[in-house]
Amino acid sequence: MSGAESSSLGLASPTWRACAAAVMASCLLGCTSEPARHETAPPNPGPFARNLILISIDTLRADRLGTYGYQRETSPFLDEFASKGVVFDNARTPASWTIPAHGSMLTGLYPRAHGLRGFKDRLPSDVTTLAQRLHRAGISTIGFSNIWIIDAGRGFDRGFDQFSLTMPKLDGIGAAPKINRKAARFIAANRDGRFFVFLHYYDVHSHYRPMDLYERMFAGPYDGPADGTTEQMEKHRSGKVSLSERDVAHLSDLYDGGIRQMDAELKRFFTHLENNGVLDDTLVIITSDHGEEFLDHGLFLHGANLYEETVRVPMILRGPGVPAGRHVEAPASLVDITPTVLSLMGVAPATDVDGVDLSLAWRAPEALDAGRPFFFETDQWKPNTDELRWAILVGDQKLHVADGIEESETYDLAVDPGEQDKLARANDALRRQLDEYRAAGRKPEAALELRPEIADRLRELGYLGVDN
Ligand SMILES: [Zn+2]
Question: Is the pLDDT at 463 greater than 80, yes or no?
Fold first, then answer.
């Protein structure tokens, strides 16, 4: 174990519960308030998972993890963790950027239903979140966001007893250690009841600036112009910067280093949880909101298109009721998380969500509809316009369209998983299904004001485009 991996959370204690009160009393590192107590919290959920930890590692492409077939050792901890649970090999996000994707992750709805499609959108008041559903079942809830666009103003805090925003650290150490310290404290204080902890980490997102230790694992000596900043990759998108193949490879190496660093941080956190018995009765879901592109289709970053490199995400489940050592081929989506959680935690099922209960994959595989459609959309294709890109996947056939362009693109993922060779014939049936989805969009209930200083901060994250 390296020096960086061996530091502790500073909270490990053999007398875990006894010290919880003292820890909460001192509350040194940014706890927002005393967690709400639920007098009706059922102490024994029977065969179900008692608690939930839902982890969103922002911008993590599935194919950069060993458990998804990557050859580099970016994820030794996650691979080992996944080997004791279920890995969904074909999980996707409905949107290739942060806000709509997290909307789906936290509601079980496609963006057309949850309404969080753009920067100005707010979660409509009639949308019920996963946190609300669990809270109503007597479960204490806390959400940790690592980027200010996942915020209370948009409604991401709905259903959480506490919602904590930690600003991202875009260089070096990242914010994960700080977030994990806060999360460990909440868990210690809520161990006697049931809890839901949502953890969002921005550490893999650009800028790609892993600590030296992790950079050196994948990146060799380099003296070229690629600096790993969001701004430079944005400029490449608009043609103002040109980068060589070697530069692109270096950026990809830095990205891998960031994943390895995140993996080490999760190892530290989960070792702590395991040592304190938390994992015995806790369902853990590890996923991401979207992937990342390294010129796979001519661009960097994410949000501008809906090809596999930006919509395939990891989805790893582990805990009570989840078998060990399984890989599931059946496709899955972030919209499936809510119904799956409710099922595995013994909470009343939701009849008003788009997703399905993925535990069917091991309880009754024939009940999972192999032909169900998966929808995708992004409004970051042409920032500051109302024109979106859309896609639909049914089986192996994936069709893309864009507003204002009549022509579509269809790919057969069975023979062309990288979507490089467009089929000569469009799939009309998919086109009709997708057009129905597009037509059913709801208008956001209320719009947030996009002030100039907010627009500037969005550009720093790679959104809106540098020239707008
Ligand atoms: Zn994101």
Answer: no
- Dist CA 248 CA 225 (whole Å): 10
Confidence at residue 57, expressed as pLDDT on a 0 to 100 scale = 98
State the DSSP H helix or E strand holding residue 399, giving kind and residue range, or none if neither.
Answer: strand 397-402
Residue in the structure block whose two tokens are 């270096």: 250
CATH architecture of 47-368+444-460: 3-Layer(aba) Sandwich (3.40)
Residue boundaries of the structural domains of the chain: 47-368+444-460
Q: How far does residue 247's CA lie from ligand 1's centre (Å)?
A: 23
305 C-alpha vs ligand 1 centroid, how far in Å? 14
Cα 275 to averaged position of ligand 1 atoms, centre (Å) = 31
Using the structure block, give the residue that is written with the tokens 């490199």.
Answer: 309
CA of 302 to the centre of ligand 1 (A): 8
Closest CA to 114 of 127, 105, 101, 95: 127
Summarised one tens digit per residue, pLDDT across range 300-330 is 999 999 999 999 999 999 999 999 999 999 9
- The size of the chain, in residues, is 468
Distance 290 CA to ligand 1 centre (A): 6
Name every residue whose Cβ is closer than 8 Å to that of residue 405 and which is 6 or more positions away in sequence. none
Ligand 1 mean position, distance from CA 59 (Å): 5
The alpha carbon of 58 and the centre of ligand 1 are apart by a number of angstroms equal to 5
Query: What is the DSSP annotation of 319-355?
Result: STT--SSEEE-S-EEGGGHHHHHHHHHTPPPPSS-S-
Query: What is the pLDDT, as a whole number, of residue 3?
Result: 35
Q: Which residue has the tokens 């600003």?
A: 167
Strand partners, 87: 316, 327
Please tell me the distance between residue 219's alpha carbon and the centre of ligand 1 in angstroms.
24
Centre of ligand 1 from the C-alpha of residue 289, in Å: 5
Q: Separation of 334 CA from ligand 1 center, angstroms? A: 13
Query: Rounded to the nearest whole angstrom, what is the distance from the C-alpha of residue 240 to the centroid of ligand 1?
Result: 24
For residue range 87-106, what is the model confidence (pLDDT) as tens digits?
A: 999 999 999 999 999 999 99
Q: Per the confidence metrics, is the pTM higher than 0.70? A: yes
Residue 276 Cα, ligand 1 centroid: separation in angstroms? Answer: 31
Tell me how far the alpha carbon of residue 197 lies from the centroid of ligand 1, in angstroms.
19
**Two tokens, residue 119:** 């920067």
Segment 114-130 shows an average pLDDT of 93
Q: 99 CA to middle of ligand 1, Å?
A: 7
Q: Give pLDDT tens digits for 43-77.
A: 556 689 999 999 999 999 999 999 999 999 999 99
- Provide the pLDDT confidence category of residue 7 given band limits of 50, 70 and 90: very low
Say if residues 184 and 269 touch (Cβ distance below 8 Å). Answer: yes
